[in-house]
Design a protein that fits this description.
Helix content: 10-25%
Structural class: alpha+beta
Number of helices: 9
Strand content: 25-35%
Strand order of the largest sheet: 7-9-10-11-12
Number of strands: 26
Shape: elongated
Amino acid sequence: MKHRLALAAALLAIVIAASGQTGKVEHSVYVPIDPQVVQDQDEMTWDDYRPIPGKNWADPALKPERGFRMALVAVDFSDQPFVMTLPKGSDLFGNPQIDPVDRSEIPQFYADFWLRPSAVNYGQTINGYWMEQSRGKFGITQLEAFGPYRMPKPLWAYGLSEWGQNSATPDGSKVNYRMERDIDSLWRADKGDIKGNYDAILRVYAGYDETGVWQEFGEMKFNSRDEIPAEWGNPNPDMPRWAPTRYVEWTSWKAGQMQWGLSSIRQGENSGTITHELGHFAFRTGDNNNNPYIKPYRRAGSGPWDMMDRGSFNGPGGPHMRWVVPPIAGAAMPAGLMLRNRLVNGFITEHDIITVSREGLASLAPVIARITARAVQPLPGEYAGMMVRLDGAEPHDRTPVTDPATDPLSPGKPRFNYYSLEVVQRIGYDSFCPDNGVLMAMNTDGEGSNGGPNGFNCFNWVIDAHPEDINMVDYVKPDGEKVMRTVADYRQLNDALFHAGLNSGSEFEYVDTHNRLHFYIIDIHRNEQEILSYTVGVRSLDSDVVREPVTVSAGKAAQKIAGEGIVEFGVSGDDLCRLYAVVTGDGWEVKLFNEIVAPGDGKTVKVPVYVRAKQGCSKKAEITFSAVSESDSKYRSAASIKVKLQ
């Protein structure tokens, strides 16, 4: 809690500046030490990007420990030219966003877009993402361009082969073609069988990934499928102008004819999810996402906080901007990987984290650690995260069974192996996460379904500090009707992070009575480069072991207060304690900035207490401050300060 007074003054200046006030405001000194500030994805722009201090992971001169060689093969169709060859803003979807390039240059354009930092891609590349997440262990070292090639069938012959869309073909034929086979045949005929020279093939096809256009150019653009105009409909005027799609009953035919990107790394020109597909391909990691559009609704697993869930949609403008070509909005800046996935991928090891056994903790004092923001290497003496293993007698996860059919917030069958705590700071690729703070989750060692109706593969289950409905509009229909975000929308987890201190707008502790664990967000810190870290703690509800009883001292015996101010107390010792402050005297009030403290061996922490004298109060009062051990309440210490109205 060091420098709390300076922080309070700084926050006061910010509050006054933001409000345009020049005089005192009520409770001006009392500001939270770690306010939750959630920024919605729809409101983000490239100005929200904050580079990692002193490190540019996208620099092609940096060589990864494990290089990954890719070929990029670009193809177009008789009925769909490359969007990037068209005049700026001229196609039906409003693309491209920049001046066009010649068809012959398309393969190299996209190879450069994905691999080489430039003004076009705002300096962000798929190599930069993986280098940042792995701290240089894994990167894309080669992306060789091939093509362009003209496909033997029209686009719809491939795009209408999925999600029950066969009924929407212009000629009534039943199509069942995978695009990859024809792409590879064209490439092989031109260059020979060189596929084995690469670790993966990125197949870029002219047009759009249906995942980025089905909603925006379907139910968001048209009130009903009967209102779709001819230019958005089937080229056969005798056919309906709509097509079935993956999540809902219909979209416009123009959107529905597109292919859905796959983990074979088959991507349209609007796709920003190549990093996500590489997660599947290079590391065999599955999806962690739900179906947010089908009832009964099921809450997302990790939402905006992990790239293998809908965090792959993070980027300027939010998820409804994933139709942009080239892909510089929507999914252009995917979230980092959560602790579990970084461990599985080998990007961090168990030496980088502090691991706690639940069974061992039952006979130990609370475990305290400092955790550094996940976008950077742990600072000296700090960790990349905390893991609390749910070990002991079966069942390991003792969470009561809940029914996902009636409870949309149910995590499904109890099957988790450990808790994780990590710190998210909005820098680097986490710049487009919605908040800074502590991310808490339950995790599985392996992968598998969470069971129940609409179950999904779930290995990260974020603990939501705000499980209530976020109550925000998803989109507005053309007729003005507001469509709210469902409880299954991944953005329900935008406010999920935990924060230190009181009155932050979030929570600073979490109790799992069934698994006998109590978690604490104890304090917040920033170093000289503004890198964020938190002191966190965990204790067993079955342990009464105290580290070392603390002693409370008063900084001054007496103090004068002019209306409002701060008095300081010292807490010495090595225990996790809950703090209390009371005042005796008419018309006086006191408030704590933080309710938890853990000084550490040999340290004294200065704890500020806010005091305010109301109109007509008594001339004198006394503030009593006490610290009580969280493990055993008989260990407590207190001190007092007399205050006098100045």
